[in-house]
């Protein structure tokens, strides 16, 4: 049976809460280990924990954790989607795994799902301790794709300006402006539309998830370009994606300029099928676990 160990570690002076999933027979055994990063706005009880548990069943220790400002972790502002802060937290997660007695020395990797893939890519590009990289349904965008996704240059500029105004307000008053993370009614939501995974309590609408997005996060998110980090990634990489999932052109661009040993696996399914639908998750887990077993 997989063992879940409640853990805590620090990043930027704040305490992060995590769940370390250990394979059966963990007593005294050191395993290869992977830090798991889920989609934007999410907490460890969503897809990150699901994938971490699945990796542990396949013999790989895996850490799902709440980034600063999310879930049970400390840090402020709350619910701020900050690529810079999240990448730093991933590096702190690698610090934690690298010194844990259940982790085999030098055998640490990363798994990124959706937006977490971009954060994992950038951290792997700058941290040689990341020996292997797995990306599932990765959201990888650049400036051109951002404009295509968010309605053109003017719409992107408006979101960016709203974020900058929210940053100024926070600096002056300490007040954080929020919009829903997901909504079918509020067009200002970070994700506007019938995104069932986040709206269904039997799927991703878990009690630990706050469903809110700090408006001040827009400039950092819109300006984030993980594709630009691809040439710096040396860790062997496997990518599991679908032509019908989010931003497949970003995956193609990333894969084309990635110099590391690489494998791109196309599967069927929509973006959020990879978050919790059993057939999609299990197939993705089989692929990334095989990759980690051979590269860690």
From TrEMBL:
It comes from the Bacteria. Residues 13-133 form the Xaa-Pro dipeptidyl-peptidase-like domain. One of its GO terms (molecular function) is hydrolase activity. Keywords: Hydrolase. It holds the Pfam family Peptidase_S15. This is Alpha/beta fold hydrolase.
